[in-house]
Write a structure and sequence with these properties.
Length: 654
C-alpha cells in the first residue's frame, strides 16, 4: 500500500493525513503497536516472566484525557507508568539516602488511594483517637484508583463515562441483607431509590440496560443485543440470538446446542466441598470436562469472563471465579450457596447492577467528602459527583486524614527489625524529588504487584505468596459519538463481536441526578464504553498476563485510536456510521493490573497449603495489607472490606 493510500485511509477514519515523525515513532513503539496488539503470543519470543523494556513514555502516549478534574488522570498515565517501572527496575534505590526528611511522623500511613485505601482511611476516622493522624499517599493526579471518570464536552452536552471500576449492587434493602452491598452506603447518606432515564426520539422499541456488565452475559433481557459475525460480505448482525437458540447464527449445530445447555440446562453434582472443588480446576476444564461442552463455546464466554472480573479467559482461571461472577454453568451453584446460609434465593435475584454516570467514581468521591468535607465544593448529590476538587484541602496540616496526590511510595522498611521496630520509614517520589516520612504503622492498600518491590524488608513467606498473585490488564476506551443513529438503524442497544479490536459495547440508561442525565436520544451525543481484555489462550498463566501488559503498554495512543476507528467503521458502517464525522473524541484508560487472575487453588489452597492471600493478610511488623486482590476479586466493595480490616490491624499496633 502506498504512503498516499495509507494517508487517505487514515483521513477517511477522521485522522490527519500527514503522519509526523513523532506519530510514526509512537505508533511504531516496540515494533508496531497495532501489529503487537494483533500478535497471538508475543511472550513466546522472550522468557515467560520478561517485561518489555519500554522506553520512557510521554504525554502523547497517554493521549487525550477529556475535560474537568480527571483530564490529567485517564488510567495509568505516562507519569504513573514511568514511576512504577522505575520502582520495579530499582531506579530510585541509589538515591534513597538523599531523600529529604520532611520531619513528619504519622500514626498511620496508607499507600494507595483506591477503594481499599479510602476504606482504610475512613475506618481510621471512625475508630482512631481524634489526636491520631493519617496520611494517604496516592500516585495518581486524583484519588479513586480505578474509580475515576472521563468527561467530555460534545455539541453543547457534558458527558460522563467510567474509566474502570463500575457497577454496584442495588437496591440496598436486599443487597445489604445478604452481604452483597457495603453498609457504608447508609453512613455516606446516599439515596435509597433512583429513577432511570428512558430513551427519547427513537422509533425502535429497544431494551437499554442501566449498567455496562449485566447484558454482557447474565442478563441479556436487559438489552437488545446484536451479535456480529464476519463473512465474505463483511459481516452480518443477528439480533438477540439467545431467544431462538441461535437458529440463524452461522454456527455448527453442536456449538448452538452447547451454548443453550451452558446457559440453561445444567444440574451440578451434589458435593459438600463444591467450593473447593470448583477452585481445583480452571473454568475451561469445568465447561469442557464437567459439562462436556465443545471448546468452541469458549469464545462466547472468555471475554465476558475477563471483562467481568476474571482478567483472562477461562483456560487458566479458577472455576470458582466464574461462580463469583455468576457465569454460565458455575452459576448453577448460586442457589446452593444461599440455601446453605439460610437465605432465600428469590430475594437475591431481586438485586441488580446500577452505575453512577462515571461508574464507581461517585462512591469514591463520597468517601473523600465524608472525611474532608471541603475537599469537594458544594453539598448535594450533583455537587459531590461533579463539583470541583479543592486540591489545597486534601493535604492540610492539622486535619486527621490527609491525602497527598502524585506521591509514589518507592521504598518502605522498618527502622530496625520488624518485630521490634517502633517506626516505619516511608520514602516517596513527588515532583521529581524523594521525601522521607515516618509512620507508626503502614497500611499497604496498593496492589501486590508493586508492594513486593516497595517493601524492602518483606519476609520470604510473604514474598513467596505474592509470587502466586497474577494480574491481567484491561483497556477501557470511551468513545464520545455525536449520535447513535447507526445503532437505532440496526435495531440494537448493545453490540457483541468475536474478532478484531474489543468485543462488546452498549448504551446505558443513567440514573437521574436532580432530574437530569446525559441525553439518551439517537440524534444526540453519547459515550460508548469498550472494556478490552488482552487474551492469549494456550500460554501459561504468568506468560499470558505479561504478554497482555506488553501488548497494551507497547501501543501508542494513535495505534489504538486507529484500531478503534477501524473496528467501529467495520461494525457500524453498513448502518450509516462514519468514523470521521461521528466520533467526537476518544479517551484511553490503560489499567496494567486491572484484575487479579486467580489460578486454581488461589481461594482455598492446594494440598493442604494455605491460600497465598491468607499469608499476606497476616501482615508483618508494623505493616498490614488491605487490597481488593486478597478477596480474589478486584471489586470496590471487596477493596473497602480489605482496607477496613487492615486499618484495624494497624490501629492495634499504634
Amino acid at each position: 500500500m502506498t504512503e498516499r493510500r495509507k494517508n487517505d485511509d487514515l483521513d477517511a477514519l477522521g485522522l490527519a493525513a500527514d503522519i509526523t515523525r513523532r506519530d510514526f515513532i509512537n505508533t511504531s513503539l516496540i515494533g508496531s503497536g497495532a501489529t503487537l496488539l494483533g500478535m497471538q503470543a508475543p511472550g513466546l519470543l522472550r522468557p515467560a516472566s520478561a517485561q518489555v523494556a519500554l522506553p520512557h513514555v510521554d504525554e502523547d502516549w497517554t493521549g487525550y484525557g477529556g475535560v474537568g478534574d480527571y483530564a490529567r488522570a485517564n488510567g495509568n498515565t505516562a507519569e504513573v507508568v514511568n514511576a512504577a517501572h522505575g520502582i520495579r527496575d530499582g531506579r530510585y534505590q541509589s538515591s534513597i539516602h538523599d531523600a529529604e526528611d520532611t520531619g513528619e511522623t504519622f500514626d498511620t500511613v496508607i499507600v494507595g488511594g483506591g477503594f481499599a485505601g479510602l476504606g482504610a482511611a475512613y475506618t481510621f476516622t471512625r475508630e482512631a483517637e481524634k489526636s491520631q493522624s493519617c496520611l494517604l499517599l496516592d500516585n495518581h493526579a486524583i484519588f479513586g484508583g480505578e474509580a475515576k471518570q472521563n468527561e467530555f464536552e460534545v455539541d453543547g452536552f457534558h458527558l460522563t463515562a467510567p474509566q474502570g471500576s463500575n457497577g454496584m449492587i442495588w437496591p440496598p434493602k436486599f443487597a445489604e441483607k445478604y452481604g452483597l452491598f457495603h453498609r457504608y452506603w447508609y453512613e455516606l447518606g446516599l439515596p435509597d431509590t433512583f429513577e432511570f432515564q428512558e430513551v427519547t426520539g427513537s422509533q425502535q422499541q429497544l431494551a437499554v440496560p442501566v449498567d455496562h456488565y449485566t447484558s454482557m452475559y447474565s442478563g441479556r433481557d436487559s438489552a437488545t443485543t446484536g451479535y456480529f459475525f464476519d463473512n465474505d460480505q463483511g459481516g452480518e448482525w443477528i439480533i438477540n440470538p439467545w431467544t431462538d437458540d441461535f437458529k440463524d447464527a452461522p454456527l455448527a449445530d453442536k456449538v448452538k446446542q452447547d451454548l443453550v445447555r451452558l446457559e440453561n440446562y445444567y444440574t451440578p453434582p451434589e458435593r459438600d466441598d463444591w467450593e473447593a472443588w470448583l477452585d481445583s480446576m480452571t473454568y475451561r476444564d469445568f465447561i469442557t470436562r464437567e459439562m462436556a461442552c465443545s471448546p468452541e463455546v469458549l469464545p462466547f464466554v472468555d471475554k465476558a469472563f475477563a471483562a467481568a472480573g476474571g482478567g483472562l479467559g477461562g483456560d487458566q482461571i479458577s472455576a470458582y471465579t466464574a461462580f463469583e461472577f455468576y457465569l454460565p454453568g458455575a452459576r448453577a451453584y448460586t442457589n446452593r450457596y444461599y440455601e446453605a446460609r439460610g437465605i432465600d434465593p428469590g430475594d437475591v435475584h431481586k438485586v441488580m447492577l446500577v452505575s453512577w454516570p462515571g461508574g464507581n467514581t461517585g462512591t469514591a468521591r463520597h468517601f473523600v467528602k465524608a472525611m474532608i468535607p471541603d475537599a469537594i465544593a458544594g453539598g448535594g448529590l450533583r455537587d459531590v459527583l461533579w463539583g470541583k476538587v479543592n486540591w489545597q484541602a486534601l493535604d492540610r496540616p492539622g486535619q486527621q486524614v490527609r491525602i497527598r496526590l502524585n506521591a509514589t511510595a518507592v521504598h518502605i522498611e522498618h527502622n530496625g527489625k520488624p518485630d521490634k521496630s517502633e517506626v516505619v520509614n516511608v520514602i516517596y517520589h513527588k515532583g521529581g524529588r524523594l521525601y522521607r516520612i515516618k509512620a507508626r504503622s503502614v497500611v499497604m492498600a496498593s496492589g501486590g504487584w508493586i508492594n513486593k518491590h516497595i517493601l524492602r524488608d518483606l519476609p520470604e513467606p510473604h514474598r513467596d505468596a505474592y509470587g502466586q498473585f497474577y494480574h491481567a490488564p484491561i483497556l477501557t476506551v470511551n468513545v464520545a459519538v455525536r449520535n447513535w443513529q447507526f445503532m437505532e438503524r440496526l435495531g440494537i442497544s448493545a453490540a457483541q463481536w468475536f474478532s478484531g479490536f474489543g468485543w462488546y459495547t452498549n448504551l446505558r440508561r443513567q440514573m437521574l441526578i436532580d432530574g437530569r442525565a446525559d441525553p439518551l436520544d439517537p440524534g444526540k451525543p453519547t459515550v460508548l464504553t469498550f472494556y478490552v481484555p488482552y487474551l492469549n489462550p494456550g500460554m501459561p498463566l504468568q506468560a499470558q498476563t505479561v504478554a497482555g501488559r506488553n501488548q497494551m503498554f507497547a501501543s501508542s495512543y494513535r495505534a489504538i485510536e486507529i484500531q478503534v476507528r477501524k473496528q467501529m467503521q467495520k461494525l457500524f458502517g453498513m448502518a450509516g456510521f462514519d468514523a470521521k464525522r461521528d466520533i467526537a473524541a476518544i479517551i484511553l484508560n490503560r489499567w496494567g493490573h486491572a484484575y487479579i487472575a486467580p489460578q486454581p487453588g488461589f481461594y482455598f489452597g492446594i494440598n493442604g497449603a494455605p491460600a497465598p492471600r491468607e499469608v499476606i493478610r497476616e501482615g508483618y511488623g508494623r505493616i498490614t495489607f488491605g487490597h481488593s486482590e486478597l478477596s480474589g476479586q478486584q471489586l470496590w466493595s471487596r477493596g473497602l472490606e480489605e482496607g477496613e480490616r487492615a486499618a484495624r490491624q494497624a490501629l492495634g499496633l499504634t
